[in-house]
Write a structure and sequence with these properties.
Layout: H1 14-31, H2 47-52, H3 61-69, H4 73-79, H5 83-103, H6 113-141
Length: 142
């Protein structure tokens, strides 16, 4: 079997059902901003902000996604720097899963697992640094 052979994916298998579940979750995430109003803070409100008065790591994400779906990239970035990045990643993952479900094959994206792990860790670290800077600015400006 060659290195480039594709694994078969059956939608009736546990893995296939898991792919369908993840695709559905991503689809809900991608269409959620279209059903929110400008300035909405989501379904539950931010408990961290209610308790501390400071922004949580995702404060502004719903509004950022809403602005992005209205084609207001600058407004989206002002609400949360990672909103557009997360939306693009979710879009990519949704279409990858969708194609895998339809074709019945696991598709590779041509990146090593090490590169993907380093990218995820780097994104997480950058997100935490962004959150800490936001909180520091809120404290300084308060």
């Amino acid at each position: 079997m060659s290195q480039h052979a594709y694994k078969r994916l059956s939608v009736n298998s546990a893995q296939g059902r898991l792919y369908i579940l993840w695709a559905f979750i991503l689809l809900v995430f991608l269409i959620f901003p279209y059903f929110t109003e400008s300035g909405s803070t989501g379904i539950f409100g931010c408990k961290f902000h209610q308790l501390t008065g400071l922004s949580c790591p995702t404060c502004g994400m719903s509004r950022s996604l809403y602005e992005l779906t209205q084609f207001n990239l600058l407004g989206s970035l002002k609400m949360h720097l990672f909103g557009p990045i997360i939306y693009l990643l979710a879009t990519f993952l949704f279409f990858k899963l969708f194609l895998e479900i339809i074709s019945g094959r696991s598709l590779t994206i041509g990146m090593s697992s090490r590169f993907i792990k380093i990218s995820i860790i780097s994104l997480g670290i950058a997100w935490v640094v962004y959150w800490l800077v936001r909180m520091a600015m809120e404290i300084i400006l308060a």
